[in-house]
# Entry
Amino acid sequence: MADFPEPADAISPEQRHPNQWSTPRYHVQVGVFDDRKGARALVTRLEGLGFAARVVEGRPARVWVGGFLDRRTAEDLRVHLQTAGFDAALTP
# Structure
């Protein structure tokens, strides 16, 4: 009988996407919340303005916009979001 790989959920994220081979992405962090409800509300607001936003799970919950391969594009978005009144910071 042939050996089959374990289901994907049994493999750690590091095994699926080892850091040594992955390409770093730059995100713009727009909010940090103690509760997921506040983070979700900000995502809804950002999506309403046309931004691709998501909640990064964990404690605290963080709201990120984008996922860029080049830092310059992420910096441009950070400046745009700050100009629009958001507290935006670049995160690798």
